[in-house]
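Q: I have 191 residues here and want to know how they pack in 3D. Can you give me a structure?
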Amino acid sequence: MGKEKHLVGEQDIIKACIDNDPRAQKILFENYAPKMLGVCARYCSTMEDAKDALHEGFIKVFKRIENFKGNSSLETWMTRLMINTSIDHFKKSIKYVHYDNQEKVLEHSDDDNSYTLVVDDQEDVKMEDLYRVINQLPDGYRVVFNLYAIEGFTHKEIAEQLKISAGTSKSQLARARVMLKKLVKEQLNIG
């Protein structure tokens, strides 16, 4: 029997994936699929779409892993690919409603690196509670909200990704904020 290569660390797994080693690809998939599915689910309408985006994303990961230079973590690099793949899925059925109200939706806390939704001047809700209601937003609102408030993209970057104007991105975010505040007040009994 031939000498089998041991895949111990992330660098070994990356090198083996570059060589198209199915064992390494399986390890990489099993290690990252649950988190990447969560990323895809933030941008897709259904879990079925999220799973499709996840699989397409991993195909891209395996095809492009030789381009991974280590300038960021592997997880960060993969997350970007998953977001882009999910956005591609989303763009196939995108429709927007314009809304021009501009108001603050999230505040960042450096203490615990968390975000809170500002419901009014006195109350806020932790992100963990928001994930349930974020998925109830219409697709356009949810994608723009996630890209801007959670991933940290600028409106210009969002506009380039989704092939829309920066003004449309801003209006979608504003509409998402209003809807989120309403859903949070109704479902979490805030306000």
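Q: Anything worth noting?
A: The longest strand covers residues 114-118. The chain has two domains: 10-91, 106-188.
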